[in-house]
Amino acid sequence: MDTINPKYRPNSNKLDINNLAEKIFSGDKLALARGITYLENDQNKDVSWVKELLTKGGERIKQSIRIGVTGPPGVGKSSFINRYGSYLLSKGHSIAVLAVDPSSSITKGSILGDKTRMEQLGHHEKVFIRPSPSSLHLGGIRPSTLASIQLCEAAGYEYIFVESVGVGQSETGISDVVDILCLLFLPGSGDDIQTIKKGINELGDICIIHKADGPQKDLAKERFHILRKAMQDGGMGKRSLIQFSSLHPENIAQLDTLIEEEIATRKSDGTWMTKRTNQKNTWLQTEMMLILKNFIEQHPIFAEKLQQLYSDNEASETIPIEMRSAIFTFLTESFPTDSGSSS
Question: Residue 339: exposed, middle, or buried by beta-carbon count in 10 A (0-12, 13-18, 19+)?
Fold first, then answer.
């Protein structure tokens, strides 16, 4: 006779997507976390519940404010969000934080430690914090970040913070998902030449010299004048610049005013919605590239050809760029542009 394990329970972690949209819309944090996890998995194809949720939460999405926080490693991005987020909570707002942590190129793992540096926010009922690994994607964020933002907005969160991994000048992906980008600088780093180089430094809306306290206070003042001159010389003089300390945030109201003024200006001149529309198009292009990449890697014929190209490349004395012709020939033969038909 077969025995039944009395301790057996069905797998409660398996995602039931049937009622997921309704649960997220009602503010269920566990459902929101599971929905984001579902979107982060490229193998999940059924996203009909997302369309249902975004249709229901359309007005919430229009009213939300997306704030990106980026800067070099060690600049204090999580501490800044913790402090400014607490200030917004005191004004009655709700907050979601999507923090992207770097993944190891060897183990593919991430520490996901950002949440531990947001102690004031971590246990508040009006806060949702979601750390995610970058999974080695370039640009400082994940390809699914925009969709995750929209899920948080549909769940009713008013301010959505997106914290990127520690970035360099070329990693500008975060600007494609946020309304306002806060760019944090360390008091004693860089010079005016580094400041005006194109890339992430050029895209910051609110430039913040962070950790402007203690022995670094004088360095922060010096850095402030250097940055201000560099912005003026580089044609970026209208950009907001402020010194700020998350430990001693005496001027946090001034910071909040700068951000509110930037938001009001963009909403009044029409650039707010234009930017969001452009962001959707940019991320459509990103999704198409990911789909094509996955298709090529997983399709039997393409996968076989790809392995052959790798083998040929390793065995020959050619440089990788010389394989471009072979790749192009293979693709054009697989997808001919001339149908060959005539009437």
Answer: exposed
Residue 64 CB contacts under 8 Å (≥ 6 apart), including other chains: 153, 157, 158, 159, 160
Report the candidate in 55, 52, 143, 155 with the shortest Cα–Cα distance to residue 96.
155
Q: Please tell me the distance from the alpha carbon of residue 206 to that of residue 262, in angstroms, as a whole number.
A: 9
Give me the helices (H) in 177-270, please: 192-195, 200-203, 217-233, 252-269
Mean pLDDT per block of 10 residues along the chain (343 residues) reads: 45 63 93 89 73 88 92 89 95 93 41 60 90 55 80 95 69 82 84 50 82 91 86 73 93 95 93 90 83 80 80 74 78 71 47
Report CA-CA distances (Å) from 320 to 297, 316, 323, 325. 18, 10, 5, 10
CB-based contact 209:244 (threshold 8 Å): yes
Record the pTM.
Answer: 0.80
For residue 292, give Cα distances in angstroms to 46, 47, 203, 282, 329: 18, 19, 29, 16, 17
Q: What are phi and psi of 185, to 5 degrees?
A: -120, 150
In single-letter form, the type of residue at position 329 comes to T
Please report where in the chains the tokens 């922060």 appear, as a residue: 220
Q: Is 2 left (phi over 0), alpha (psi -120 to 50) or beta?
A: beta
95: β partners:
127, 159
| Token pair belonging to 34 | 């599971």
* Tens digit of each residue's pLDDT (9 = 90 or more) over 82-121: 999 999 999 999 999 998 865 433 333 333 445 566 777 8
